[in-house]
Write a structure and sequence with these properties.
CATH superfamily of the domain at 17-96 and 213-268: P-loop containing nucleotide triphosphate hydrolases
Largest sheet: 6 strands, mixed
Number of strands: 10
Distance between the termini: 81 Å
Shape: globular
Strand content: 15-25%
CATH topology of the domain at 17-96 and 213-268: Rossmann fold
Bound molecules: adenosine-5'-diphosphate, magnesium ion
CATH class of the domain at 17-96 and 213-268: Alpha Beta
Structural class: alpha/beta
Oligomer: single chain
Number of helices: 8
Length: 280
């Protein structure tokens, strides 16, 4: 008989393809003696190769959730598993590629040195980190801009550098917090398509935070809707659009159905509250 597999204490084996599993997770901030609950009883999973989007009103705890998964902030209850293993908060650090909401480039470093930064932080020698980053510049539409400084580049290019910096660490889970949030509509749509093409080739598990319902539907396999604070899961929408996705799908019946489900879950289809003093 084969010996049964052994697992470290606290580890319960699950489906082998689960990349991220969050169970009954809650989070609180304590500020000036006041306890503020940011997330309440969140449970969901992401399999390898799956793209999941998270939407919710401002302050619903989306960034907090990504901070927790990445190991930057500790949950107050519940647990987080990466690749079926339960890790303490600090042990999750560096296990996923995380592009934070305001992932600023260092203004005194060139595009190439900014992109190479995460590899250097992970201990790669500087020259090798620069060579590794430079090899991906054409694919990110950045060829020829290696020596430019952030102030000399467009917003879309700066986002692609920040994105390249996260992707270079080659982690199996990618956490993206509103990566296109600060961009104009045209740049945003172009970068969504570009991200989708890149992802079709690499197929990491992705958790993308966005406040844009159409972006969530266009990109994701599944969209999770959070409530206002404390963030709870109100709705999960599996997206029935085939892959590879094309821009023309945004006009399809399936797309519009998903949009109306999501707007409804966000409470945006109900009539607005009457404006005070507006009653006749
Ligand atoms: P979202 O990303 O969905 O806009 P956040 O995760 O940034 O929401 O914040 C969730 C809630 O927690 C908000 O009410 C926010 O003000 C609060 N919060 C976030 N970070 C901190 C912090 N460091 N200290 C205290 N409260 C915080
Ligand atoms: Mg946020």
């Amino acid at each position: 008989m084969l010996p049964s597999p052994t697992f470290p204490p606290g580890v319960v084996p699950q489906q082998p393809s689960t990349r991220l599993a969050v169970t009954n997770l809650s989070a609180t901030y304590v500020e000036g003696g006041e306890v503020l609950q940011a997330l309440s009883d969140i449970s969901f999973g992401i399999d390898d190769g799956q793209f999941v989007a998270l939407i919710g009103p401002s302050g619903s705890g989306k960034s907090t959730l990504l901070d927790i998964v990445s190991g930057l902030f500790a949950e107050s209850e519940g647990d987080v598993r990466l690749g079926n293993v339960r890790y303490a908060t600090a042990d999750r650090l560096g296990q996923s590629a995380y592009m934070r909401q305001r992932d600023l480039l260092l203004p005194w470093r060139t595009a190439l040195d900014n992109a190479a930064l995460a590899l250097e932080v992970h201990g790669m020698p500087r020259r090798l980190a620069r060579r590794t980053a430079a090899a991906r510049f054409p694919e990110f539409g950045l060829a020829g801009f290696e020596n430019a400084y952030p102030a000399q580049l467009s917003g879309g290019m700066r986002q692609r550098i920040a994105f390249l910096r996260s992707v270079l660490t080659e982690r199996p889970l990618l956490l993206l917090d509103e990566p296109f949030g600060a961009l104009d509509a045209l740049t945003r749509v172009a970068l969504q398509t570009w991200l989708l093409n890149l992802w079709e080739r690499e197929r990491q598990a992705v958790l993308l935070v966005t406040h844009d319902v159409d972006e969530a539907i266009f990109l994701a396999d599944r969209v999770i809707v959070l409530s206002a604070r404390p963030g709870r899961i109100l709705h999960t929408e599996p997206i029935a659009l085939p892959r590879p996705r094309t821009r023309s799908m945004v006009a399809s019946d399936a797309f519009l159905r998903h949009r109306s489900h999501l707007l409804d879950a966000l409470g945006l289809l109900r009539p607005p509250d009457p404006v005070p003093g507006d009653r006749r």
